[in-house]
User: What shape does this take?
Amino acid sequence: MSNPGNVIGGHKANLSNPNTSAESKKHSEEVLDKALNKGEVDTSNGTHEKDQSHVVGGLKATLTNDNVSETAKENAKEKLAAMNEGEESGAEPKEKDYSHVVAGLRATLHNPNVSEEAKKSAMQKLKDMGSLKG
Assistant: This one.
């Protein structure tokens, strides 16, 4: 069975595609209207709560991306600073998932783009955590 989200996305794309016929667009409108009435279309407009670790990761990536404007980088810096202030004001920091930390450290050991110094540091952290024998 098809994924309803993918089907809906395809119909949305069809509506904005200048190379599709009017008949095809009409059909897509009908399908989307039916899906909207059934509640299959997300109309929350992005109001669901975002995972803050993903937000921070995206903002940090913005700072190092050469294809991003200086204005966007400044905006990302401001947002990160505001988020850090929130943490200092008593908001509970999210505890890291132990298995994710271990997986990240192990990935560091096998990544050819990581320095030997970083690999040694990761290995020591794994030993300290009891997740690496030797």
